[in-house]
Amino acid sequence: MGTTLDVSRAELALVVMYLNKAEARDKLCRAIQYGSKFLSGGQPGTAQNVDKSTSLARKVFRLFKFVNDLHGLISPVPKGTPLPLVLLGKSKNALLSTFLFLDQIVWLGRSGIYKNKERAELLGRISLFCWMGSSVCTTLVEVGEIGRLSSSMKKIEKGLKNGNKYQDEDYRAKLKQSNERSLALIKSAMDIVVAAGLLQLAPKKITPRVTGAFGFITSIISCYQLLPTRPKIKTP
After folding, report:
1. Backbone dihedral angles phi then psi of residue 71, each to the nearest 5 degrees
2. Closest CA to 49 of 119, 62, 57, 215
3. Distant-in-sequence, close-in-space partners of 15: CB < 8 Å, separation ≥ 6
4. Model's pTM, two decimal places?
5. Residue 63 phi, psi dihedral angles, 5° rounding
6. 73 pLDDT exceeds 60?
7. How many other C-beta atoms lie within 10 A of the C-beta of residue 138?
8. What is the CA radius of gyration of the chain?
9. Topology relative to the membrane, per the entry (predicted)?
10. pLDDT beyond 60 at 172
């Protein structure tokens, strides 16, 4: 009974910890937003109203968030990182920071505070191009980093000779990193499609329903990436 209660408390504590993160709440709202977009298919109705209202509400979560990537832009990079990956990483930070900054003006426009609607819509479109560009940079960075990890893992395998590579701590750590980056690669690549859908660059192929489906999947991936580590429960 005591063990079951301890487990329940630990699980509930994880839920509380998760929901206390503004980023986690934003990604949950994002899942609702794109799930509604998928259901509506771009047609007027309740689902589309949920899509639009959730989209506007999410912008509040992102107020001043551009500072995070601005800090990343001026922060030093790990030693040994190839120059192309450094440049791509910094470009991603710059583009994402610009997207988040312009997104605040879009929120002001849709809230009625900023009166120039045409300017707000133009800045909104520019911000989406910035987000699309940052997703492209992220995709290329992840491809490069996965390649570097693969090379490191092959070197470890050669060093082990006949040993079990899965018992080697360094190999397991590299494998975990590779899996995490592979998931990030899938997410960023799918987000390119989402951005293209929002910009209506290929409206016949990337319909609102396709945009909603891809956006919902990347939202679920983001929610998974933010999950806290489960603590180990001691059993008597």
Report:
1. -65, -40
2. 57
3. none
4. 0.88
5. -60, 130
6. yes
7. 23
8. 21
9. Multi-pass membrane protein
10. yes
